[in-house]
What does this fold into?
Amino acid sequence: MKNINRRDWLKLSGLTGAASVIGNPLNLSASNFVSIKGTAEQPIRLSSNENPYGPSPKVRQAMTNAYDDVCRYPYGWYKELVEMLAKKHGVHADNIMLTAGSTEGLKMAGITYGGEGSNIVTADPVFMAISRYAEHFGTYAHRVPVNKNMGHDLERMEQRITQSTRLVYVCNPNNPTSALEPAKELEAFCSAVSNRTVVFADEAYFDYIEAPNYPSMIELVKKGMNVIVARTFSKVYGLAGIRIGYLIARPDIINRIGKSVMAGPNILAVAAAKAALQDDEFYQFSLAKNAIGKKMAMDTLDGLGLEYVPSACNFLFFKTGRPITEVYADYIKEGIKVGRPFPPMLDWCRISMGTVEQVEQFCTATKKVFG
Ligand SMILES: Cc1ncc(COP(=O)(O)O)c(C=O)c1O
It folds into this structure.
């Protein structure tokens, strides 16, 4: 590990209490841990909010061990994982549905609550899986521009609810802006709105929230409210490619949405998720690495006077002041693939945290592109 990273690492590990993860204590495979420098021909992917350190060695082993079961249908393997998740979140097994990535859960909700004559309410910009899918099936999507903090404009979203609103989508922290809603406001909003329609709370980035005791909307599910929460193993657990996530909701909601299941997770994904839940060392390692990378990137943006949203995620959203298409091309020349354009914010750029070394490459490139 380079000196600068080790120094930053030590500094931050003091803050995060993660001193035990200095160096490569988990024996991560070289391809993940030692960054291959990105080139214009083969840029590094800082574009999709993945965790490049995954999967952890323990998860790899669990998947290898599960190969013998691959000749079987996976459904009988779900129960144990569902029970682990129920215990983790303090809910019952019948509150949980496993999905092939949380995207499957989002789409299942989109098709269940969408359809001709209905509408859904979302922020803009926001993660689009649910609204696009619902629109495809004839729903109208009310897109409410984010507020000045780049968070959900909850007041205006509530005003857009009509008799035909079947679902309100809240993505917190939000992708692509990375903003976290004030907890009290969000809870009040979800509680009030769930009396009128279904609230879908997408918590894909929940693990990265650093605010102490920040509440999950799972608490509202426990109170029996009309709320669905989506979680994923794609982010902090580093399992985006194996496709596993889950929904948490009242059993009647789970049963209703469950009728639209398309694939569900496979046996390797279930084995991976079970091992990931037990690998706290890797979980803490990933969070600490993310914090170091984010601090390095923020310092660089600060140094250049570039505005960014305080991030509760594994990515940063910063203002480029010029068209993202141009900036995107400039970064490709520097061996880095940044996030796609996010209309209407076409002079903003989303950058995912790679390994610390990859973020270092991003910092050097940013000084060149904007210096
Ligand atoms: C807010 C949000 N929700 C859901 C997803 C989908 O994740 P997955 O389908 O991999 O669980 C993403 C992916 O980037 C996301 O940003």
Observations:
- The two ends are 27 Å apart (CA to CA).
